[in-house]
Amino acid sequence: MQETVRQISLGTTQLGVSNKIYTPSTNPSPAVLEHPEGTVHRVKLNFEIASCGFCITGIPEFRKLVDWADIVHYHFPWPFADALHFISNVKKPTLITYHSDVIRQKTLLKLYSPLMNRFLKSADRIICTSPNYARSSKVLEKLGKPFGTIPIGLNKDSYPVPQQDVVKRNREQYGEDFFLFVGLLRYYKGLDTLIDAARLISGKIVIVGAGPLEKELKQRVLVNGLSNVIFTGYLPDRDKVALLKLSRALVLPANLRSEAFGVCLLEASMMARPMITTEIETGTSYVNIDGETGYIVEPDNAEQLAESMNKLSDNKQLAEQFGKNALARFETLFTSQKMARAYFQEYEQLVSESS
To answer: Among the CATH numbers 2.30.40.10, 3.40.50.2000, 3.40.50.720, 3.30.565.10, which is that of 2-154+336-354?
Structure first.
């Protein structure tokens, strides 16, 4: 979500929009940062409940920013933002980018639902990040309110070009033609299934990222005696793009709708790499098209996942064709310029309607 906000703000700034970004921080010093995408206003993260950050002391700053703004653009879900909206009595035109349903906190959702539904109904615009998620969201279906779709986009120029020395260093360390995972090591990523699939393939899997499941996943690899799974930990973009260049395909075996889009799939598409994803009725199946840009398999199915990996491992020409198709799809649908223009049009319409 952070990268999506940055890309929207950067793109609309270039179209003449002035952006001020309100965000929580554990250490908001300095409180205001100047970036090319706009002014970032950081407020103290006071505490968290069920992964939701609360910034009680940041309420006055939010009110100041609302007074300055012509439009308030929220990114959902952040339940505290719902409360902020009503506490601050926001009367400006509002737009909500709907990234994901609330998935894991089902008990708390029962308590939160009245506020959530009131907040969503109060918005002048609701924008979903993919038609797949829009169709499959029970929340949006019950809302009975029209909403649009603007896919997430990335700016290829904002990523480093793979330098020969960086590619060489990563090739020496990890090899090439491996299957690559990039992302936080979280419960909904399906990484246990990916590790189980490693027993059924002849190739290698490189897992880039850190997160709460890192220790558990490494133990799973150790217990199963797998020598073809490598954990790199967190890597900067220069190494990440080098590994994408060296890989045979990107694998994202998510098993819950918490994986609402999969920005890593856009990064793979930019690098003309095929993808293997799962069907969880989210944006992952909008970025990756089965049989065109890669394969889509059932979630939590190690055998299907391994079968698709073996197909791409055995057929380099097919993998390259899928990669070319992925790049073409990215350039048609998923550039940050296209996303920014679409949001700019929404902003213009909101301002026009409110005047």
So the answer is: 3.40.50.2000
